Every structure is written in structure tokens, then in C-alpha cells.
TrEMBL record:
This is Electron transfer flavoprotein-ubiquinone oxidoreductase. The lineage of its organism: Eukaryota, Metazoa, Ecdysozoa, Arthropoda, Hexapoda. Residues 279-374 form the ETF-QO/FixC ubiquinone-binding domain. Binds 1 [4Fe-4S] cluster. Keywords: Electron transport, FAD, Flavoprotein, Iron, Iron-sulfur, Metal-binding, Oxidoreductase, Transport, Ubiquinone. Its cofactor is [4Fe-4S] cluster; FAD. Signal peptide: none annotated. Accepts electrons from ETF and reduces ubiquinone. It catalyses: a ubiquinone + reduced [electron-transfer flavoprotein] = a ubiquinol + oxidized [electron-transfer flavoprotein] + H(+). Its EC number is 1.5.5.1. Residues 518-621 form the ETF-QO/FixX C-terminal domain. InterPro entries: ETF-QO, ETF-QO/FixC_UQ-bd, ETF-QO/FixX_C, FAD/NAD-bd_sf. The keyword Secreted does not apply. One of its GO terms (cellular component) is mitochondrial inner membrane.
């Protein structure tokens, strides 16, 4: 099967990672010749300890924690929201609106792991204002940062040298009339201001690390993360216990692949009747370009090159109306790709070199970079939305319309509907002292809304790309499905999860990526520097491994270390292990931009992403 195309004569990108990969190949062969390495207890030098986090190594079995006071302060709210994105803030605003309408006292608390509201938000973004119109009808008077109405749409198929236009008909998913190009982080920060004006208590820099349960098993609330733990897992002199936040109802609005949402889904079996979620990784840059290349309100999307026809993905290019001529450019790669040598970051860099694309950026300067995973499963992958004590909203529940490349308005609407259902339960006086309230009619509200209707119409578009015809079959089927309004009497399915899709390295062709020029294309570390990412250095890595031996035994030996390529931030690196005479995985947790790709794509699901200390991570400015 063909892989991403290569230009004849391109030079291999020989940075540190490339040199490491040469060593990897050598040591992978030696691993297979050492049967004693199959036994961890017999070969600890070959498999040094990597993970020190208490979720893997419990503190009650660690004598260093024997004398530490583990009591936590407890606070209580009526409604608790985990996550300060479009869904969580819309839920908070709607809840306070309802309380005011009904003359009810309602304490609403929202915790957000970013140091500032909006600091971890990354999206294209071309926003459909339908939910905002409902939530805050006078948003224009309140100066919401929606400054760029869409003026023109373009959709194209790229070959290696050509750009072939694809028509956009009124009412089709790619028709963006009436939408706005936005910097979503700024919109979210503005929503935070509106929420605080209504009396919502927002706690930025506060990472929700643990779910708390009542004796009957219902959700009681969350605990925030402890601080002052050393990299070795021991308490430091600055150790401080997190606090408990209890609530009658807890709304989880963590975004795509939220780590607490994962736990809730597993505990209550919320995925028992839906397809596995499938994901993409979206990478984005913001550029200041030459004024003559700037066309505020222009929205462009492409499919095709540099990806092969069996790899799902495409690009976006949005021209913003800002004081300086800014564009947002991004590239999405479906995480169901099969070649372990594929690097989404490098595919993005290569995309910008296309002869019909590069002219936009020549003479300009890149000012921001970031990446985030996104849901692509759509209708088939929506889980059960409620459970005793709470519910899921937004991207955490999978509300994403892939053909439209939009989910923010669904996130907002789902948060609003969840708040309405939760408030109805709370205001009814049904509160029980030792049990959480389930917003039981929230799923019915979703099914009666445009969220459900829209996602049902396009349910077969994304899975249609899994046929033998790949891209061409998917485009043809999607066009047919759109023409009939999604009324075909069948539903296609996604099949196996993304992490099962990688083929062994021996079955795939390595991809040679060109060296970055520092003007149009860039290396990974200089890109991460633009994210403003910062974590406390002396803390356990929040990228935890269930088994420290799996990366070398399995991922390196069979798949040639794919985590070094699928991570868009240089977190994972295979380096020489001098003591063991082999290679070892090095986790550069300080680089992590909280995209969640590793948690999704790791072939054995050995990586489990958990929250670092609150306030850590990227510091995006309107991404």
C-alpha cells in the first residue's frame, strides 16, 4: 500500500531524533536475540523504572508517605463543572441564568486545569454562532470576539503539484455562510468573563485529578491534584494535599479524551452500546503574512496530498480580521492511520511546501503553534451520556460533525441542555444526602436538538473512508449521503479502535521527510517553544506507563517506536541505555501540550495520560 508521497532526492531530516532512530533499528535486532529480556525481574538494568506516579505506584505501599497527613479540605457546591471550555462555560452560564429566572440560589463551581481560562483551548476555528445566539443573544453588544464573518469558501483536492477545486453547494457541510472565523481561546476567555459576571465561581490552574463517589456508587464530586511531589514520587517539603469539591451533580466537560471522563465511562459502562470512538490529531500554526496575501474572511480546506489515499486527513486555512494580517493554518490526520513511520507533524510541515500553498506564507512569520486531538466518531460513537451523579458534555461526549469540521456549537448546546436538566433535578428538591443526582432527561433533550439531528445526517461520512477505495470512495459516498440527507437505511461502523490499526514496521515503508528550512517549515522543538508550555520540573511524569517494559519490548521491537513520531511535542524519545546495553524510552514530560494523542494511539494502551500539577501545560493565546 502506498504511503505519504516523497519527492525524489529529498534529504532525510538528520536531527537528534533521526540519529536515535538509526540506533533503534540496531538495538531492536539485539532485543529479539536476548530471551532473558522477556523477564522484567531478571533484567531491570535493561528496563529501568520510568513511571513514578502514584496512580501506578500507590502511596499506601510507599514508606516515604507513612507520616504524611493526607487529610483534604472539603467544599460543597450545587453544580460542579470539570473543564472550562465552550461546553463547560456554556453549562455554567445557562445554570446561573435558570437560577436567576426561577429565583433560586445555586452555587456553580468550575475547575479548569489551565493557568488562565482559554489557555489550553485549540481549534481551527470556524464557529457556527447558533448556540451562542441562544445562550447570549446580545453577544455583539457585549463585544464577543467574533470579528471575522466568513466571506468566501474554497474546497480543493491536492495532488503533488496541482490544486483541483471541488464545488461547495449551498446547505452542504462545507458551506460556511453565516459562520465566523475565530480564535477560540479568546472566545472561551470571553465566555469566562460572562460566567463570572453571573456569579459562577471559576478556579483556573486547578486540575481535577480524582473522581469521588458516594457509598451507593454515585459520583460525589472531584478531588484536585496534590502539589509538591518530587520526580521520584516522594513528598517534598512543599507538599500540599488537594481539596475535595462535592456537588449534587457533576458535569464533565474536559474535552476530547478527558482522563476523568475515561474513568467514568469505564466505571458505568457508558460505551457498551456505541462504536469505539475514532480520533484525529489537529496541528495548527498562526502566521502573520504579507498584506497583499491577506483576505479576511476567506476559508479554505483541502484533502489529498501529502497524505496517501488510505490515510484520512486534510488542511484548513482561515484568514482572520485582526489588526495585523493573520491566518490560521492547520492539518488534521486521522489517528486510524496504519504506517508507524508516519509523523503528523512532518506531514503538516510538508503540506505548507505545496506549490499552490506556500505562496501564502512566503515573506511571513510564524507566531504560534499547537496541537490537540479531536473526536471523529460522530453519531455511532456517542456514549451513554448520564450516570448516577452527573453527565458528559461537549467533545468529551463526542459531539463533532466531521464533514463540517465543527464541534464548538454542539459543545455549547450540549452544555446548555445538561445545565437545564441538572437544574431541573436540583430545583425539584430531589437532592439526597448521600447520593448524587443524575440529570436523567439530558439524553432526551439532546435527541430533540439539532445536535442529534445533524450528527445523524452525516453519520456515514467518516466510516465510508475505511473502504478499499480509501479517500476516493469516502468522498464519493459522502457526496451521495449528503445528497439524500443521510436518509440511507443503514449505518456504517468504524470497526476496531485507532490504537489497533498500526501495522508492524517490517510491513511498512519508512517515510523520509525533508529537513526544515526555518522559514516555511520547522523542527519540532522550536515549534513547541511557541506553545508557551511549562510544567513544574520536579514532579512525577504525568504520562504514565502501566508497564515500563512495554515501550522497548513491544513498541520499539515491533513498531519501531511510533510514539516518537505521533507525539506533536517531542515528549517521547528513544535513547541509548548505557547500563542495559539497549535502548530505553525517555519521557520529556515538560514538553507535553496536553493533546492526548499518546493516550489514544499507543498500540497497547499502556500510556495513561493524567493531569500534572494545576496550571501546567501550554499557554495558548487565542488558539
Amino acid at each position: 500500500m502506498p504511503v505519504a508521497s516523497n519527492c525524489e532526492g529529498e534529504r532525510t531530516y538528520t536531527n537528534n531524533m533521526a540519529r536515535n532512530m538509526l540506533n533503534i533499528a540496531k538495538y531492536s535486532r539485539t532485543l529479539l536475540q536476548r530471551p532473558q529480556l522477556r523477564h522484567y525481574s531478571e533484567a531491570s538494568a535493561q528496563f529501568p523504572k520510568i513511571t513514578t506516579h502514584y496512580t501506578i505506584h500507590p502511596r499506601d505501599k510507599d514508606p516515604r508517605w507513612g507520616e504524611v497527613d493526607m487529610e483534604r479540605f472539603v467544599d460543597e457546591a450545587d453544580l460542579l463543572i470539570v473543564g472550562g471550555g465552550p461546553a463547560g462555560l456554556s453549562a455554567a452560564i445557562r445554570a446561573k441564568q435558570l437560577a436567576a429566572e426561577k429565583g433560586q440560589e445555586l452555587r456553580v463551581c468550575l475547575v479548569e486545569k489551565a493557568a488562565e481560562v482559554g489557555g489550553h483551548i485549540l481549534s481551527g476555528a470556524c464557529l457556527d454562532p447558533v448556540a451562542l445566539n441562544e445562550l447570549i443573544p446580545d453577544w455583539k453588544e457585549k463585544e464577543a470576539p467574533l470579528n471575522t464573518p466568513v466571506t468566501h469558501d474554497k474546497f480543493s483536492y491536492l495532488t503533488e503539484s496541482a490544486k483541483l477545486p471541488i464545488p461547495i453547494f449551498p446547505g452542504w457541510p462545507m458551506d460556511n455562510r453565516g459562520n465566523y472565523v475565530v480564535r477560540l481561546g479568546h472566545v472561551v476567555a470571553w465566555l469566562g468573563q460572562q460566567a463570572e459576571e453571573l456569579g459562577v465561581e471559576i478556579y483556573p490552574g486547578t486540575a481535577a485529578s480524582e473522581i469521588l463517589y458516594h457509598e451507593d456508587g454515585s459520583v460525589k464530586g472531584i478531588a484536585t491534584g496534590d502539589v509538591g511531589i518530587g520526580k521520584d514520587g516522594a513528598p517534598k517539603d512543599t507538599f500540599a494535599r488537594g481539596m475535595e469539591l462535592h456537588a449534587k451533580t457533576t458535569i464533565f466537560a474536559e474535552g476530547c479524551r478527558g482522563h476523568l471522563s475515561k474513568q467514568v465511562m469505564a466505571r458505568f459502562g457508558l460505551n457498551a452500546e456505541n462504536d469505539p470512538q475514532t480520533y484525529g490529531i489537529g496541528l495548527k500554526e498562526v502566521w502573520e503574512i504579507k498584506a497583499e496575501n491577506h483576505k479576511p474572511g476567506l476559508v479554505e480546506h483541502t484533502i489529498g496530498w501529502p497524505l496517501d489515499r488510505h490515510t484520512y486527513g486534510g488542511s484548513f486555512l482561515y484568514h482572520l480580521n485582526e489588526p495585523t494580517p493573520l491566518v490560521a493554518v492547520g492539518f488534521v490526520v486521522g489517528l486510524d492511520y496504519v504506517n508507524p513511520y508516519l509523523s503528523p507533524f512532518q506531514e503538516f510541515q510538508r503540506f505548507k511546501t505545496h506549490p499552490k500553498v506556500r505562496s501564502t506564507f512566503e515573506g511571513g512569520s510564524r507566531i504560534a503553534y499547537g496541537a490537540r486531538a479531536l473526536n471523529e466518531g460522530g453519531f455511532q460513537s456517542i456514549p451513554k451520556l448520564t450516570f448516577p451523579g452527573g453527565c458528559l458534555v461537549g467533545c468529551g461526549a463526542g459531539f463533532m460533525n466531521v464533514p463540517r469540521v465543527k464541534g464548538s456549537h454542539y459543545a455549547m448546546k450540549s452544555g446548555m441542555l445538561a445545565a437545564e436538566s441538572a437544574c431541573e433535578a436540583i430545583f425539584s428538591g430531589a437532592t439526597q444526602e448521600k447520593a448524587g443526582l443524575e440529570p436523567k432527561d439530558y439524553p432526551d433533550r439532546i435527541k430533540e436538538s439539532y445536535v442529534w439531528k445533524d450528527l445523524y445526517k452525516v453519520r456515514n461520512s467518516r466510516p465510508s473512508f475505511h473502504t478499499g477505495l480509501g479517500l476516493f470512495g469516502g468522498v464519493a459516498y459522502s457526496g451521495f449521503s449528503i445528497l439524500v440527507g443521510g436518509r440511507e437505511p443503514w449505518t456504517l461502523h468504524h470497526g476496531s479502535p485507532d490504537h489497533t490499526r498500526l501495522k508492524p514496521a517490517k510491513e511498512c515503508k519508512p517515510i523520509e521527510y525533508p529537513k526544515p528550512d526555518g522559514k516555511l517549515t520547522f523542527d519540532l522543538l522550536s515549534s513547541v517553544a511557541l506553545t508557551g508550555t511549562n510544567h513544574e520540573g520536579d514532579q512525577p511524569a504525568h504520562l504514565t506507563l502501566k508497564d515500563d517494559t512495554v515501550p522497548v519490548k513491544n513498541n520499539l521491537t515491533i513498531y519501531d517506536g511510533p510514539e516518537a513520531r505521533f507525539c506533536p511535542a517531542g515528549v517521547y524519545e528513544y535513547v541509548a541505555n548505557d547500563e542495559g546495553g539497549n535502548m530505553k524510552l525517555q519521557i520529556n514530560a515538560q514538553n507535553c501540550i496536553h493533546c492526548k494523542t499518546c493516550d489514544i494511539k499507543d498500540v497497547t494502551q499502556n500510556i495513561n495520560w493524567v493531569v500534572p500539577e494545576g496550571g501546567g501545560g501550554p499557554a495558548y493565546n487565542g488558539m
